[in-house]
Amino acid sequence: MRIAFKPNKTGIAILTIMLVIVGYIIFKRRKQIKQMASKTIEFIQNKTWDIITDRRLASLHPQIRKRANEFILRAEKELGIKLRVTSALRTWKEQEKLYAKGRTTKGNVVTNAKPGKSLHNYGLALDVVEIKNGKALWTNPNWSKIAALGKSLGFSWGGDWKSFKDKPHFEMRFGKTLSDLQALYTSGNREGEYVNLA
User: Fold this and answer.
1) Looking at the structure, do residues 34 and 54 belong to the same domain, yes or no?
2) Are 143 and 167 a contacting pair, CB within 8 Å?
3) In this structure, are residues 131 and 137 in contact, taking their beta carbons and an 8 Å threshold?
4) In this predicted model, what pLDDT tens digit does every residue of 163-198 receive, in sequence order?
């Protein structure tokens, strides 16, 4: 049995009016709709293989976030290496707790950096590790490839440090010393945890 639906003149008039209204709204908001579509496409394109990494990348200083994201995406695409960001922004309070480990609280010493003495405290550093078969490769034969890619994007690499080699560590200073960054932070020349680098 077939049921046929045929709207009457009133129904057709209402549908026509609704279509005109919707068309008018789309026309008036076309710039917003285009921007929203563009942002959605950009968001999808910038997603990494790893939701944990995506969250940590989002915590970085806005001035390095895009390059850090590109670093992770290109490592996978060009090197076949899945990098996970293990540390990004660490607030001064988090750094204080970390510094206390093995000193005033239980555990082993994990850092020599007091609050304000790490680029992580300003969102200007990230630590990465390759994930292979679900496991972190801290002792990794690919560090030189990973470092070369990071440096090509403008990052300094902790593996080049003279006294203490920190291969997972990548940072950008924007010509600022730790003292400069600390002064900007404590003077209030910042938005939240992010100092004004201009």
Assistant:
1) no
2) yes
3) yes
4) 889 999 999 999 999 999 999 999 999 999 999 998
Helix (H) or strand (E) holding 194: strand 194-195
Predicted TM-score (pTM) of the model is 0.77
Distance CA 85, CA 195 (A): 22
At 109, which amino acid appears?
A: V
Give yes or no: residues 181 and 91 share one domain: yes
Four-residue CA torsion sign, 164, 165, 168, 170: positive
Across-strand partners of 105?
Answer: 101
Question: How many Å apart are CA 150 and CA 187, to the nearest integer?
Answer: 31
Residues 68 and 132 reside in one and the same domain: yes
Domain that holds residue 37: 8-45
Q: Which of 67, 49, 88, 32 is nearest to 149 (CA)?
A: 67
* β-sheet bridge partners, residue 132: 135
Identify whether residues 137 and 170 lie together within a single domain. yes
Residue written as token pair 């902790």: 158
Tokens of 142: 């690919």
The verdict on residue 1 lying in a domain is no
Q: Which residue bears the tokens 């490592």?
A: 75
Which residues touch 39 (CB under 8 Å, ≥6 apart)?
A: none
Which DSSP letter does residue 92 get?
H
Higher pLDDT, 27 or 190: 190
